[in-house]
Amino acid sequence: MAEHFDARETESPEAREADLFRRLPQVLAAAVAAPAYAERLAGIDLAAVTDRAALARLPVLRKSELPALHKARPPFGGFVPGPASGFARLYTSPGPIFEPEPEGSDVWHTARALFAAGFRPGDIVLNTFSYHLVPAGMIMDSAARAVGCAVIPAGPGNTEAQLELIAAYGPSAFCGTPDFLKILLDAGEKAGIAPSFRKALVSGAAFPKTLQDEIAGRGIEAFQAYATADLGTIAYETEARSGLVLNESLIVELVRPGTGEPVPEGDVGEIVVTTLDPRHPWIRLAVGDLTAFLPGQSPCGRTNRRIKGWMGRADQTAKVKGMFVRPEQIAEVARRHPELGRLRLVVSRQGEADAMVLRAEAHSPGPGLGEAVAASLQALTKLRGSVELVAPGALPNDGKVIADERPIG
User: What dotted CATH number matches 7-307?
Assistant: First the structure.
């Protein structure tokens, strides 16, 4: 039995990178047929975007911006080259954000995540992701059929009916959130219906170690996928249980929160994804989640880079004395003072007043650096704050730029 879904999973990193960036200029040329991309990418030599350094100079599109952009220019904010009628299915996700599904098999590139979780031709899959308006159900449905599985389009909820389906069809595999998997298992135990599935791909919610151990103890091998409604699967877990392997069909960057600048190797950053489907391209979409790259390759034999998994949210905006302070303002402080490394703005409460302290790693602190940094902080935020210079490596590598330590309530 094959160990990998396709050859892309084990090709050399250099060959994969070369292929992705060979295709990228063609996708960029297609993207500017959409008015919003034509505006954002105006004046850029798109044919020259053939490596990561050139890609990093393109503007970042933040997912948090999409609801307002879609509302201003419905339905897709001007980011899709063709009309809505040219797509197979049309969805919405919270925001609202409107999503088109192009024609084709496994257009969200999720089949390899199922394959890595042990799904094989002949399996029957109970798919409990929603089919109603959102794309989650069809993302997993099309992936399972691309692997060669039969699918029960169950959707979420309605536990009694789900147990009837399990008893009738005996599904060998499960797709859904980890908490709903536990609900089904617990309900089946009470009803005297033994679960037939022995493998699972879970996503969409936290999967803590305690729940992982419980599911494994009930004889089910469950694997995680990190996916979004707009991009499909971004990374997936393998039998190595060593981080999540990045989807081989995407270009993934990690940037400093609030900017489009790639973080230094090993640092936590915000996930930014570029897709290569000219029908519905995403060019440097920042999804708002934090992670870090893992060094080396996975012991499972897949050669693409790995991430640690979800490590928090990049949107750390805080309201201080009635003014919003944003990560991009702190990033601008760093740009103005190249002597600095990691920065963390700590917001606290002193008596009845808000207070800010900018802790900054200083590689070569010259005289007056603290005062100069404090002046930049005030100029950028319109708020006074003190500056504490610390040694390189003193701040935690967790991607947090603004730490709001004020008591709640």
Answer: 3.40.50.12780
- CA–CA distance, 78 with 37 (Å, rounded to integer): 7
* Adjacent-strand bridge partners of 62: 286
**Average pLDDT by stretches of 10, the chain with 409 residues:** 83 97 97 97 96 97 93 96 95 90 92 97 97 94 97 94 95 95 94 92 90 94 95 96 96 92 92 96 94 95 94 82 83 92 91 87 90 95 93 91 81
Asked, colleague to colleague, whether 7-307 and 318-404 share their fold, the answer is: no
User: How many other C-beta atoms are found inside a 10 Å radius of the C-beta of residue 382?
Assistant: 12
User: What's the pLDDT at 342?
Assistant: 92
Torsion sign over Cα 58, 63, 66, 68: negative
Yes or no: is domain 318-404 CATH 1.10.10.10?
no
DSSP 312-354: -BS---EEETTEEE-HHHHHHHHHH-TTEEEEEEEEEEETTEE
pTM score, whole prediction: 0.84
Kindly tell me the burial class for residue 112, based on how many C-beta atoms sit within 10 Å of its own C-beta (0-12, 13-18, 19 or more): buried
One DSSP character per residue, 25-39 reads: HHHHHHHTTSHHHHH
Rounded distance between C-alpha atoms, residue 191 and residue 198, angstroms: 19
DSSP state at residue 60: P
Peptide linkage before 75 cis (omega within 30 of 0): yes
Tokens linked to 329: 């303002």
Tokens linked to 72: 């201003």
| β-pair partners for 389 | 360
What amino acid occupies position 263? V
Instruction: Tell me if 257 sits within 8 A of 64, measured CB to CB.
Output: no
How far apart are alpha carbons 302 and 248 in whole angstroms? 10
For 86-104, b/e burial (b = at least 16 CB within 10 A) is: ebeeebebeeebbbbbbee
φ, ψ (nearest 5 deg) of residue 21? -80, -15
Helix (H) / strand (E) element for 355: namely strand 353-362
- CA–CA separation, 42 vs 35, rounded Å? 10
Give pLDDT, residue 258.
81
Look at residue 322 in the predicted model and tell me its pLDDT: 73
What are the domain boundaries of the chain?
7-307, 318-404
CA–CA–CA angle 26, 30, 32 (5° rounding) = 120
